[in-house]
Please model this.
Amino acid sequence: MCGITGWISFDRNLTRHQADLDAMTATMACRGPDAEGSWLDRHAALGHRRLAVIDIEGGAQPMSVCTADGAVTITYSGEAYNFTELRGELRRRGHRFRTRSDTEVVLRGYLEWEEAVAERLNGMYAFAIWDTRVDKLVMIRDRMGIKPFYLFPTTDGVLFGSEPKAILANPMADRAVDLDGLRELFSVIKTPGHAVWCGMREVLPGTVVTVDRSGIREHRYWTLQTRAHTDDQQTTVATVRSLLDDIVARQLVADVPRCMLLSGGLDSSMLTALAAAQLGEQVRSFAVDFVGQTEKFMPDDMRATPDTPYAHEVATHVDARHQDIVLGPTTLADPAVRQAVVTARGITGGLGDMDASLYLLFKAIRGHSTVALSGEAADEVFGGYRWFHQPEVQAADTFPWIAYLARLRTQAPDSLNADLTAALDLPSYIRDRYASAVAEVETADGETEHERRMRVICYLHLTRFVRLLLDRKDRMSMAVGLEVRVPFCDHRLVEYVYNTPWSLKTFDGREKSLLRAAATDLLPQSVLQRVKSPYPSTQDPLYASALQQQVKELLATDDPVLELVNRRWVDAAAQQDPTTMPTDVRNGIERTLDLSVWLDSYCPELRLS
Model:
């Protein structure tokens, strides 16, 4: 997987800035625990931290190829799942390879096709190539934004990195966050290109960014486009199954131990069954659970059933070697875990115990495997969330997940102080971001009003909501050096299902009709018919009680976070009965604690006017 970073400067000699590059690269150590590398030229400095997955011995980076006109060097993160076919094509075109790595395939693909190599890649990737032949940097990010990629324009070039903290390690970067940055943190949306930090932005998914002496230019090589869908139901189901067969086979390729994330839901269960059938060996699987959760589980508005019984049933059905990672409230609430999570995510306003448990799950898995396959994004692709199917949410003039969450709130959710709340004006921010997102959607000829509306909702999930989850999964997994692959984000599957009419996506009157039909021969009926249950959250009141104790201790200090929060609200939340505490109140406490850690760890200059 790896972590990348670099600095391009046309007005200085970067060979004198090894220490600055080393500082930037060091921030990526968790993403690449196996090796470190750097490459410096007069106007370019590239850094790399490696997580060795393919060609353990031969894939060291940064990697260079020398031509008659100069060197071309790459720092690369991710996986190109079609690298074997591309290598064959490049060999036929006369290229000779020194390694078995996909990195060299991408590099030589650039030599053959230049920036157009992006259009030939299938995978998750973020990479930068410095071409000394023309003094040009080329940065390319995968279509769905699975792998993170950030840039910070300077007066004479650019800084870049897998995560903001790599850029922030350079003295030229501005460590400031303005109101728009805070709005991104607190609004439960992800605006494409927004990076929270002033002056910094993301390389957009599906984009090529070039930097030379004339400036910075961007080119979108992929966007989610509307096309006609002419396949009937049987053909559509068969195509979904065929695509997933191919995707899983490609994403199982690795020179290190692999495993499956198995929750017992339809998505992860289908992937596990496909992997078990394709590997020809016993597949290993993992799931998170909480002490006593299965025995004491209480259905709520989000989850009707516990995961563990279904995960065990699937593991038995496919003969997987399964392990539950069982977490107690003390472990989940450990301040050291919160510190690790917030530091890894680089932002505040996360998902509380769901972030902590994911981090701890990945940390435990890393003791056994280096690569894991996840069912993430199936709900966004196939329409699995409960709110997809609620008429009042479908009709809401806002992001569907925000409309749904608003219906669940039992109290005013704002733990921030009145002045900050007024300055942020989140309703207006969300309304503007929603309008700009909807304006991007291309409608299809002959679509009914309902079909058009459902296309919009699917588009919002595939270009906004899923990226929140992909960022979360990337940061939590890479914090412990685990590569998590997401088969449902294969762009071929995304394009195909996105253009399938909503009536066909729900042909049996339920969520994820196409995926369920495609998995009919793979899974037990109990799993096939199970209602969607999101990633689990602990129901243990001891966890809520631990949070309350921590926030009480915080209120007794002069922590800078107290200048931003509504102390009366936080104090009242700290006094509530933890056995009956509403989820939104617990989330408010979590946000306060996260914000405190973030301010302490990242020391941002807050520009609130």
User: Anything to note?
Assistant: The mean pLDDT is 96. Residues 393 and 495 are 24 Å apart (CA to CA). Residues 3-220 form a domain with the Glutamine Phosphoribosylpyrophosphate, subunit 1, domain 1 fold (CATH 3.60.20.10).
